[in-house]
Write the structure tokens for this entry.
Amino acid sequence: MATENNPEVMTPLAHKLGLSSQLSFHDVFSIDDPDMLAFIPRPALALLLCFPVTAAVEKYTEAEDASKADYHGSGEAEEVIWFRQTIGNACGLYGLLHGVSNGEARNHIGKMRVHFWKVFAD
């Protein structure tokens, strides 16, 4: 599993960015086995999926995205907050941002840090 999606990395990072300490990240080993799902604390507010990106996946994604218009929505009226990934190898961070910025999870965000670099200095 990638280090960036490790619960021991993601949980402290999310807390430092302002997510309530009542929430945390957990490994999910199955999405359809009831016995394995019983280990996941409830409610589960988001799911970060890790999967290998192959050349075929990249080609498919590029072709799919080429026909879509750029997203220009913004503001509190938007139902979903979406961040276009512009930094390579930052999938976990973008997953974290999407996971905590949408749905019920957004109600658990406290005061976000103004200086992002400070998260890594603490």
Remarks:
- The radius of gyration is 16 Å.
- The first helix runs from residue 7 to 17.
- The chain has one domain: 3-48+80-121.
